[in-house]
Design brief:
This protein is of the alpha/beta class. The strands form 2 sheets. The chain has a 7-stranded mixed β-sheet, sandwiched between helices. Strands 8-9 form a two-stranded antiparallel sheet. α3 crosses α5. The longest helix is centred in the C-terminal third of the chain and has 24 residues. Bound molecules: glycinamide ribonucleotide. Glycinamide ribonucleotide binds next to α1, β5 and α8.
């Protein structure tokens, strides 16, 4: 029997993915329950879905922290556990050539914000943290606080593009403007890069010549609402395995990557493609 997992969610905006997850928990497609919904944005309208079901909510106002840093950097106290140099050396969001000023501003404000997030989240033990339209990059400080076992990552994200194409804040827009003939969405575990973690599953849709960006967003979001709950249920059913896959590239160069294998359930024995399994 599949255990009921405790799910924490972080949102930044309208929270339609959060709604899809709550609905799937309610009707049994996910054997889980939402234990909190947090946000970086006081104006996130998605809170309404949580409040309707009395799921605890909280806000850590990233914008306010960033404003305070700009006005007077010294007014922010770094968390004791957050060694900024060690964190900058592990992050993969910025290139090593990035200016010191930029790195300091980003990591100081994020460490302060993440420390507050972790403190609010500590009131609600959880098995899985889902990013449901959470528009902030997470640092190794936050990620390592949650992922204590590298073989069992516990932070999932949904991204509006077929990764690794078009990471960042506007996946559907970037797909559309590039002139792609297919678009899609990706669910992945979060690592130290920007939308770069091991992929759990993807769904694609065709882009036709007369499609507008609004049509693409609508089509993509409808797929997201199906795909995310399915991936969360694979986690709940303990069907996701982290593996290291090594390949030999031309010139005998080894290429190793962490990947996710979806293992068969009793019902889907014989299936061997991710699309059969979800
Ligand atoms: C969704 O399209 C989600 O994939 C995207 O934000 C939207 C949130 O919508 N996330 C990202 O771009 C993360 N990089 P929602 O708030 O209605 O769920």
């Amino acid at each position: 029997m599949t255990a009921v997992i405790r799910i924490g969610a972080l949102i930044s905006g309208s929270g339609t993915n959060l709604k899809a997850i709550i609905d799937a928990c309610t009707d049994g497609r996910i054997t889980g329950e939402l234990v909190f919904v947090g946000s970086d944005n006081p104006a996130a309208t998605g809170f309404k879905w949580a409040k309707a079901l009395e799921i605890p909510t909280f806000i850590v106002d990233y914008g306010d922290i960033i404003r305070r840093y700009r006005e007077e950097a010294t007014s922010l106290t770094l968390p004791a556990a957050g060694d900024i140099e060690a964190i900058i050396s592990r992050q993969r969001i910025f290139s090593p050539q990035s200016s010191r000023e930029k790195l300091n501003a980003f990591f100081t404000t994020r460490l302060v914000a993440e420390d507050r997030l972790l403190s609010r989240m500590s009131a609600y033990p959880f098995d899985l943290l889902v990013l449901a339209g959470f528009m902030r990059n997470l640092t190794p400080y936050f990620i390592d606080s949650i992922n204590t076992d590298p073989m069992h990552p516990r932070i999932m994200n949904i991204h509006p593009a077929l990764l690794p194409a078009f990471p960042g804040v506007d996946g559907y827009g970037d797909t559309f403007r590039y002139g792609c003939k297919v678009g899609g969405c990706t669910v992945h575990f979060v690592d130290y890069g920007e939308d770069s973690g091991p992929i759990i599953a993807q769904k694609a849709f065709e882009i036709r010549p007369d499609d507008t960006l609004a049509m693409i967003r609508r089509r993509g979001l409808a797929l997201e609402w199906e795909l995310y709950p399915r991936c969360i249920q694979l986690f709940a059913a303990n069907r996701l395995r982290i593996e290291k896959a090594t390949h030999t590239l031309p010139g005998k160069r080894p290429y190793t990557r962490t990947i996710v294998r979806i293992i068969s359930s009793a019902r889907s024995v014989g299936a061997d493609r991710a699309t059969d399994l979800i």
